[in-house]
UniProtKB/TrEMBL annotation:
Keywords: NAD, Oxidoreductase. SUPFAM superfamilies: Dehydroquinate synthase-like (SSF56796). Residues 189-397 form the Fe-containing alcohol dehydrogenase-like C-terminal domain. This is Iron-containing alcohol dehydrogenase.
Length: 402
C-alpha cells in the first residue's frame, strides 16, 4: 500500500457563498487601507463593481481601479498596470474577474514587491519572498486562480505562454460569490467549467512522486496526494452534475454555486498536485489555433485519459464511482468513465477532435515536439511520456481515434 502523504496549500481564508462580495470592505480593511483593484473593462462598467467600490470606500479604503486587463494576459498589460499605479503604493491588491484579472493582481503584486524583469520569475520557486497581499474574487467558475500558487501570462518574446509558480502567489483571501457568475454567457460558462474539469482529472491522475522530506520544499506541484485526491473528486462530482445545468439555465443559482464550488475544489487539487499532458499539449495547440485554453484542454482530455489509463486505473475507477459508474470490470468502468467524459464535453460544445479546433494537419509533429518543452507538465504525467507518446495522443486527438 502506498504510504499516506499530503500537502495542502491554500489562502488564509476562503469565503464562499451568495452575497459574500458584500464582505469585501471588511475583509480588505483588516489587511490594509490602499487598494489597487485589477479588473477588465466589462466588469469595471458593471453595477456589481459600483457596489463593491462603494462598499470599499464606505470602510475608509483608498481605491485605485485598473480596468485594462486583457484576455490571455500579455506581459505588456502587466507592465502597464505597474506604471499606472506608480506613486499609489497599494498595501492590498484585489483581482476581480476571470483568471486573467486574478493573475494580473498576483503578478503586479510580485513586480511591485520585488521588481522586474518578469522573466526572472518564470518557473517554480523563483519568487524570493512574500508579496503584497492579494484578495481574489472570481467572476467565472474555471481557472481556480483564486486559490492557486500559479499565474500564467503571454510573453511575446516567447512562442508559448509562461507561468510563475510559487506558494507566495497564493492569494491572501479568496471571496467566492457565485452571484457574480449569473451573467456569464453559456459559451464562457462551458469553457470555464471544462477547464476546471480538466484541472480536477489531471490532478487526480497526476504522477505519485517518491514521498521524500524534500518533495514539498523543492516542488510547487508535488503530484497526487491525500488532500488533492479529495478536492479533485469533489470537483469532478460537482462539475459533472452542475455544469450542464448552469449552461442550460444561467439563472439557476444552485447550479452556479455548485459549479463555483467545483472550480475552487479543482484549484485546490491542481494547486498542489499539478496538471499534466493535456495542459502541455494545449500550449502549442493554442498558439497555433488562437483558441481558448479551456477549449483546448477539454478537447484533449478524453484522449489523454485513454492514453494514461494503464498507469492510473485505480484513479479513473475512483472518478467513475464519483460520477455513478459502478458496474463492470475495472477496464469496463474506466472505458465508460472516459466515454462519459467525452459525452459531457460534446454536450457542452467542446469539439471532439483537434481538427475541430482547426489545427493544421501538417503541424502535428511540431505540436508534439513543442509539448515536450513543458517539462514540469510532461514529468507530472502518470504514464511516462516521450515525444512518441505525445505524438500518439496528438494524432488520436486530431483524427478522433481512441
Amino acid at each position: 500500500m502506498d504510504e499516506i502523504f499530503g500537502v495542502m496549500r491554500s489562502p488564509n481564508a476562503i469565503v464562499f457563498g451568495n452575497g459574500q462580495r458584500h464582505a469585501l470592505g471588511q475583509i480588505i480593511g483588516r489587511i490594509g487601507t490602499r487598494v489597487l483593484v485589477c479588473t477588465d473593462q466589462r466588469f469595471a462598467a458593471s453595477t456589481a463593481m459600483d457596489e463593491i467600490l462603494a462598499d470599499l470606500k464606505s470602510k475608509g479604503l483608498d481605491c485605485l481601479v485598473f480596468d485594462g486587463t486583457q484576455a490571455e494576459l500579455p506581459l505588456s498589460s502587466i507592465e502597464e498596470c505597474v506604471k499606472f499605479c506608480e506613486g499609489f503604493n497599494p498595501d492590498v491588491i484585489a483581482g476581480i474577474g476571470g483568471g486573467s484579472c486574478m493573475d494580473m493582481a498576483k503578478l503586479v503584486s510580485l513586480l511591485l514587491t520585488h521588481g522586474g524583469p518578469m522573466d526572472r520569475f518564470y518557473g517554480e520557486f523563483k519568487v524570493p519572498g512574500p508579496v503584497i497581499p492579494v484578495v481574489a474574487v472570481p467572476t467565472t467558475s474555471g481557472t481556480g486562480s483564486e486559490v492557486t500558487p500559479v499565474a500564467v501570462l503571454a510573453d511575446h518574446a516567447r512562442d508559448l505562454k509562461v507561468g510563475v509558480s510559487s506558494p507566495y502567489l497564493i492569494p491572501h483571501t479568496a471571496v467566492c460569490d457565485a452571484e457574480l457568475t449569473l451573467t456569464c454567457p453559456p459559451g464562457l460558462t462551458a469553457l470555464s467549467g471544462a477547464d476546471a474539469l480538466t484541472h480536477a482529472v489531471e490532478a487526480l491522475t497526476a504522477i505519485s512522486h517518491p514521498r521524500t522530506p524534500e518533495l514539498s520544499q523543492q516542488r510547487v506541484f508535488v503530484g497526487k496526494n491525500l488532500f488533492s485526491d479529495q478536492h479533485a473528486l469533489a470537483a469532478i462530482r460537482a462539475i459533472f452534475k452542475y455544469l450542464p445545468r448552469a449552461i442550460e439555465d444561467g439563472s439557476d443559482a444552485n447550479a452556479r454555486s455548485m459549479l463555483m464550488y467545483g472550480a475552487v475544489s479543482a484549484g485546490m487539487a491542481f494547486g498542489v498536485a499539478g496538471t499534466a499532458a493535456a495542459h502541455a499539449i494545449q500550449y502549442p495547440v493554442g498558439a497555433l489555433t488562437h483558441t481558448a485554453h479551456g477549449l483546448g484542454v477539454a478537447t484533449l482530455l478524453p484522449y489523454v485519459m485513454a492514453y494514461n489509463a494503464p498507469a492510473c486505473l485505480h484513479e479513473l475507477m475512483a472518478m467513475g464511482d464519483a460520477i455513478g459508474v459502478t458496474h463492470g470490470t475495472s477496464e469496463q468502468i474506466v472505458l465508460e468513465t472516459i466515454e462519459l467524459t467525452r459525452d459531457l464535453c460534446a454536450r457542452i460544445g467542446i469539439p471532439r477532435t483537434l481538427a475541430g479546433l482547426k489545427l493544421p494537419e501538417d503541424k502535428l509533429d511540431w505540436v508534439a515536439e513543442q509539448s515536450m518543452l513543458s517539462a514540469r507538465l510532461i514529468n507530472n504525467n502518470p504514464r511516462k511520456l516521450d515525444v512518441e507518446g505525445v505524438r500518439e495522443i496528438v494524432q488520436n486527438a486530431f483524427y478522433g481515434t481512441h
